[in-house]
Amino acid sequence: MMKKAVNTLLVNSFVDGILDPNKPMLGPIKDGGHIIAHTTPGCWGPMITPELKGGHEVTQPVYVEGAEVGDAIAIKILNVDVVSTATASGSDQPVEGRFNDDPFVAAKCDSCDTLRPVTRIEGIGLEAIRCDNCGANAIPFLLTNGYTIVFDQQNKIGITLTKEKAEEIAHQARDYMGTPEASIQNPVVTLAPHDLVGTVARMRPFLGQLGTTPSTPLPDSHNAGDFGASLVGASHEYGLTEEELNKHKTDGHLDISRVRAGATLICPVKVPGGGVYLGDMHAMQGDGEIAGHTADVAGIAHLQVHVLKNVTLDGPILLPNHDDLPYTAKCFNTHEKAAAEALAKKWDIPALEESYPVAFIGTGATLNQATDNALNRAAILFDAPVTEIMNRATITGSIEIGRNPGVVTATFLAPKKYLEKAGILMTVEKQYFEQSDC
Q1: Which listed residue, 67, 88, 91, 425, has the most CB atoms within 10 A of its CB?
Q2: What's the pLDDT tens digit per position in 357-406?
């Protein structure tokens, strides 16, 4: 018998790297309810923790009351706060011999051949991650160029540290990282990287992982078309065909910097209850995450969820903050609307379209494939030709890179009648009535 749904759920438990629809979810939470989560850092911490099976350590999924397969869940991001006072990151290189097929999913100790070994920390630096079985160095990735970065108390600015200060932080790694108690990851600051010194960076935190549970067990960082492509034909137990990957994934691994406080993400429901999960908070990131990784942090996120009945999606739709929209996709202000009406009158145009911004997320093995995926998702939902969507994205929007090699947003002004027919008009109107002249 299912428990009674609650209005607010506090989340601080995590998956072992696998999003598995067959495992218990938290909740249920009411439609319109709130999720407050203490998230773990993503990427590098899990990457140097071989027992984690997915490259991240996201929150245990939450069951949303009333969410059925074929519905969607609109997730409003109310707040994203960084807890870490320091982190470390950089570009990576897998260590040959320490993984089967995929170092994010199937790391192993090359000394005793233990698959996904439990590890312990001895000292600091790249030699500190040790196999608990045999004591050998078991780190699956090397930092080819890295940095340790600290943040000010207002969470506005970060600066990168010298070798001496990075090593000082490495000796108190979990404290500086603000790692949740239930997290099993090795803190990345243990490695004490220091190739960048005195670099100043602006903070604007966002969620690199946010979405709903896929309909087959998937490594969390591979719940997207680019990272997920490495599952196709893989010999480990999470190997899939390309058709299976496309059917089951929900593209929750986004790394889109606009998935921040104030934005709304509309996600597909592919399992009963949806299974909302989050994690991989980033302190800052430019479009593309071109180094492959950024400043991953622990944090507190506050979400509100709403079920959208009979809104069938293949992947997420982002409603960014109005300030985050491309210039061409912003709502028209009063003066622009008046100018358009005057021009329509001059040219005998009987009526102008009412339109609102939407950003369709697409993923694929390459940026070109991801772009095609985003455009096709829009065309299917709006029952319009892909060529029409391409024109709209060209003159009233933009294609923006979330993550290289294969996450994009196709952003454009969509006609009100399209949004209404698709069942998302009220959600879109609420987002932009609050933030603009729309």
Answers
A1: 88
A2: 999 999 999 999 999 999 999 999 999 999 999 999 999 999 999 999 99
Burial grade of 265 (CB within 10 A; 0-12, 13-18, 19 or more): buried
Contact at 8 Å (CB) between 247 and 277? no
Token duo for residue 239: 């190997």
Tell me the C-alpha to C-alpha distance, in Å, between residue 276 and each of 29, 209, 247, 305: 10, 10, 18, 9
Q: For residues 309 and 69, give the distance between their C-alpha atoms in angstroms, rounded to a whole number.
A: 10
Tokens representing 309?
């009945």
Q: Which residues lie across from 67 on neighbouring strands?
A: none
- Domains in the chain with CATH codes: 9-81+204-319 (2.60.120.580), 86-202 (no CATH), 322-433 (no CATH)
Torsion of CA 121, 210, 26, 85, to 10 degrees: 40
Q: Which residues contact 286 (CB under 8 A, 6 or more apart)?
A: 257
pTM for the full predicted model: 0.97
**Nearest partner of 225 among 377, 357, 89, 99, judged by Cα:** 377
